[in-house]
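Q: Give me the 3D complex with iron/sulfur cluster.
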Amino acid sequence: MENSQELINVNDLQLDFRHELSAMINGKSLLNCIQCGVCSSGCTVSEWMDLQPHLVVSSLLLGMKERILSSRAIWMCSICHRCTERCPKSVDYSFLLTLLRNLAIEEGHAPPEYTADLENVFSAGFALPLHGSMFKSVNRRRERNGLPELAPADVESIRSIIQVTGLDRCMNKGDEQSNVE
Ligand code: SF4
Ligand code: SF4
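A: Here is the predicted complex, encoded as structure tokens.
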């Protein structure tokens, strides 16, 4: 995505996306960006991103919605808020990423590792498949550390919470084409 030789078809741009985002809570700050690059230069994890923070912002301003929602950059961020604190134009980038993650999930771009955890919680009440020998092994370690036996999960209540909060819409919607590794 950082390849400057790449051609973009103008018909693929969603030019109103910046307005869609700026109408959301704290989204308006996006329009203040002057592309100074301070956010990228201070980002703690930018070397693992497929697109630097200032380029995510410029891509959003240009209407490259699909590319950003399917990018690795929005999921690699640790939400440390450093970019937001340092931005000279008060662009709330770390909060924008939260909006983008929500939109990405809504549109079926959730990375499979996130949806897999959710599906584990929905089916068994734990993020890890704790059953059989794994369950016994965990309890042995808990006993060694003076902890009580792991209580069984209240799966029905957990499923109700997942359904009431709408999280179930994310399940089985992982983006097989996601760039997240
Ligand atoms: S620091 Fe702020 S103004 Fe500068 S590129 Fe990043 S978001 Fe834009
Ligand atoms: S909040 Fe995310 S994008 Fe901003 S500096 Fe931290 S890791 Fe980088």
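A quick observation: The chain has two domains: 10-106, 112-170.
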